[in-house]
Amino acid sequence: MRQALKKYKNQKRVRYKNKWERGGDIKERIPNTNPIFSGIVTGFTMGEGSFIVCITESKTHYTGYQVMPCFKISLKKDDYKILEQIRDYLRCGKVVKFRDTATFLVRKLDEIVEVIIPFFDKYPLQNIKRHDFLLFKIICYKLLSGEGKTIDGIRRIYEIRKHMNNGGHKNRKKISF
């Protein structure tokens, strides 16, 4: 017992930025699901939802780029209450109003990995959004493993992102690494 305590005291304590870096399991936080409302959330996502990965130049990041995943559902401003119900049901994200649009946004990587991804694994999308979701999921797990902190990792994420949302925007800026 003494040897074990002595060995423990002599070990260096390592600080981790998040639980995934130390090999922790991803804790799923999907709600106690109501199959009918879950189907409604999936339906709104198929019709009005998006899985987005933004790669922007950044002076504060070591690589010079920042990778930001985002899940969103956009509706008319009049349907704000529906998006609030979705937010309350999933217990993550936020609802914002801008001009004549209301949008439910989830930008935090831990909320995407613990709530959004398990939710759509349990209640899968049926249209082209399924393909986008699967690529989005791969990118999020790559970010969790730290690939967003290296140029090569960002380059791999960029190549995956090119296949999302039917090739993306035509006016999307090309990134040269």
TrEMBL record:
Coiled-coil regions listed: none
Listed GO MF terms: endonuclease activity
Record-given protein name: Homing endonuclease LAGLIDADG domain-containing protein
Species: Parageobacillus caldoxylosilyticus NBRC 107762
InterPro entries: Homing_endonucl, LAGLIDADG_dom, LAGLIDADG_Endonuclease
UniProt domain Homing endonuclease LAGLIDADG: residue ranges: 42-140
